Amino acid sequence: MRCPSPRYFADFGRARTTDIWPDIPVQGANVAVNSFLRAFLRHGQVDQYWFFAPPSSVERIKQAIKEETSRSRVPAGIGVGSFSSLVDEFGGYGFTHWLDLSCSFEAPSSLRKKLSSRPFPIIVTHHSISYPWMLRGLFMPMVLSQSYPFDAIVCTSAAARTAIVRLLDRLSIDLKRELGIDARFSGRIEVIPLGVDTEKFRPRQKEAARRQVGLPKNAFIILYLGRLSAVDKADLTPFLRLFAGLVKSNPKKKLLFVVASARAGPYLDTLIRCARESGIGKNVRFIVIPDNPAVLYCAADIFVSPVDNIQESFGLSVVEAMACGIPQVVSDWNGYRDTVVDGETGFLVPTLWMQCDEDLVEAAPLFDGEGTFDHVSLAQSVAIDLRAYRDRLQLLIDDAEMRAAMSLHSRERALNCFSWPAVMRRYQSLWTELGTMAAAAICVPNSSASSMHPRYYDVFGHFASHSVTAATRLRITTAGRRARPAASPEYEIAEEWKLLDQDLLRGALGLLRRQELDRETLVDRLVSISRSRAHHRHFIYRHVMWLLKHGFIEACD
User: Fold this and answer.
1) Residue 460, domain extent
2) pLDDT digits over 120-130, tens only?
3) What is the pTM of this model?
4) I need a labelling partner for 347 at 20 to 30 A (CA). Which of 208, 306, 316, 532 fits?
5) What string of H, E and C letters represents the secondary structure of 70-136?
């Protein structure tokens, strides 16, 4: 598994985001990745796991895994390696499957194409799929990369699957029409939902839950828990006006709308002002960074999520509420209709939209990398049937027996469909099937790099005045004779990013103390005396250049 981002292990064990990776926002994708990895390690039926990360993140990932497993060392069967070791020793790992949680297909495909003598399935999962940059950053490389029928994209919902199929087909058609290129993704596109920890998210006694989170015991509580953003989540202002009507028509119910989010932002001020101007300031409670979301769900009578944004592809909070036995009344939008069973676990409220995006499509390249203007513009053109929303809520407010029945159905559905053991069984079935297909296939390594690989020196080598060639003779300087590179201030950046091997630096200086050597002879001898592992030759070249950069050695001419 490739782990390019710290979010993969940010919430493991006692190594919380605020302790080790303080800059990682708490978002649905981050929560989903952490939950998946935890379930993967606990419920997956695999003998050996390997996680690969940038060299600077390897030790932090090892520590996070130790924290999660409450052990002093990384458990047997789990390996953590750097990207460098992955490239240098690819064949030695004996991969049977490759899993990537950030939907990056091009990287493992190019490695398999160039370095593997044995085919193996590549399985990628997605989170958001709507941002323009993803066309070029994820899906165009996916279409152009070498793929096989035993590869797969795992979608979290049927609606997301339809969107990805349409997106990939559109790219293939456009490449053929505009450039004459026949390219398409040849793998499977499957649907497996995200999961939830049904031991953590479980029904609790309502009065005790309210006492724990500080909510009134005699109120009728409607809960929204999720990111506060009208740009890429949900505009709650229409719902606040709807709720104001419910408060007015239910004077004896003591209705309370609780809005909880993992972080505050400017949109919070908008909602506070909207609630006050609607005359329901005392009926709305805002909670930022709730102490225990699982308990907060159980303190509610109904969970709502009026999502209206194409960014939403699944809706993890809906499943969390379902696992806690709380009826869900949500917009009939994207992945929500895969989770909520209308009339059984809650209600799906109709949504309305129309094609009104032509100017946004034309302007999309100008906003590429932003993804905010187009998303908020589109979301403001999505309408939720507010009358239907109000009617569904009123029905549940009035009918305690219906709420109780939906609570039981919700918990049962969460256990059967969205518990991590159930989800992992579906993954296990998929990669067993794909692995069997791959074992019967033939894969011939291709030494050429992919067109998606940058050629740094080929493109930028002329920036330098001179090139250090194979014949360039090198000698140690006075500074190099008395230096201990690893103890010098110059080494701090290299140490921070885990760029260099100290043994190679010491070895190079030791060899050059005895005599001048040309570049290739020096590197050949470093290869022969390397005590750690087989390094890529160009990795060793960078050690030579680092010594040149800091004046420990010099070129003779």
Assistant:
1) 456-555
2) 999 999 888 99
3) 0.85
4) 208
5) CCCCCCCCEEEEEHHHHHHCHHHHCCCCEEECCCCCHHHHHHHHHHCCCCCCEEEECCCCCCCHHHH
